Task: structure prediction
Amino acid sequence: MAPKVFLTGATGYIGGDGLYAISNAHPDWELSALVRSKEKAANLKAKYPEIRVVFGDLDSSDIIEEEVKNADIVFHFADCDHVAAAKAISKGAQHHTPERPLWLIHTSGTGILTVEDQRARTYGIERPKEYNDWEGVAELIDLPEDAFHRNVDEIIIGIGRRDPFSTRCAIVCPPTIYGPGRGACNTKSIQAYLLSAAVIKRGKGFLVGKGENVWHQVHVQDLSNVYLALGEAAAEGGGKATWNEEGYYFAENGSFRKVAEEAYAQKLISSPAVDSLDDKQTTEILSAGLYAWGSNSRGHSLRARKLFGWEPKQPKLIDLIPEIVSLEAKGLGL
Ligand SMILES: NC(=O)c1ccc[n+]([C@@H]2O[C@H](COP(=O)([O-])OP(=O)(O)OC[C@H]3O[C@@H](n4cnc5c(N)ncnc54)[C@H](OP(=O)(O)O)[C@@H]3O)[C@@H](O)[C@H]2O)c1
Result:
């Protein structure tokens, strides 16, 4: 029988692309999605006439609990910091049994790996620490409580620990995501796009401090293949995936740098040179700028590669910088 699949964040960038991949591969799956606006529900229905729209938001705890109770698989794409939604999912999970387990696929973010920079307030320096989700998985399940997104990760991990036979959890932890989404509503990401817009607006490229920090990257369409592989494993009763204590998945395709050169090549700024900005100057451009552009987040994706044979196939961020710069320039009316 086709699984009942409940999604949050289906109108967003990650969830929109995830839904595209899932519904294309499995048109028979019974899909429902939490949506908070009529306009976006109409967009979603236009693309997926069969989907059941559940009106509500992430604070609609009773609605989320009920949907999770009735679902076989839950993809929680919406907000990796929303405590009330995670708690409602946890309550819904309690209705499941070993005979009818819940397969819960949660979205976190590798902002969680920036904890050393956040603690030391150091930005623009390179930190050598690299995490991985294979032999390093125990560390990821037990990251420090002051790390970004950790409070919600803890709730999700707690669901699996509470009753590992009734709920099988996987956490997908993406780094910087880029590339065109194939969803019904938002199809654009954040970090590299905001950086491109900021460089064009100020007329010159910049680095945070020395600009030696490193983030990993993944194309949204490659990321969706990790969600799809997990969904398919869930539908098979677990499949090749690992769950709960070993259910933490990075999705990464190396690291990235460079925007100003492309803005210069497109004649959007007058020089390819970059300024080194201090913390205050960076925060004036974007309140989360130090985090987004000045911290380190390095997590190697081994689990999806080893278990599912997952390989990123889409272009790297560096190859899409021209596209992103010109998209942001158009958005700025240039
Ligand atoms: N993009 C990245 O590079 C990246 C990387 C790692 C982790 N993440 C994390 O992944 C999560 C999703 O990111 P995204 O890029 O897909 O964001 P997005 O495009 O803004 O999508 C967020 C989705 O969640 C829904 N949502 C948010 N708050 C809601 C609420 N209170 N009630 C109901 N629905 C709500 C949005 O609904 P509406 O359409 O109605 O707004 C939308 O469908 C975020 O927590 C983000 O921090 C993102």
About this structure: The longest strand covers residues 167-173. The CA atoms of residues 141 and 245 lie 7 Å apart. The mean pLDDT is 96. Residues 9, 11-15, 36-37, 40, 57-58, 77-81, 107, 109, 174, 176-177, 185-186, 189-191 surround NAP (CB under 6 Å).
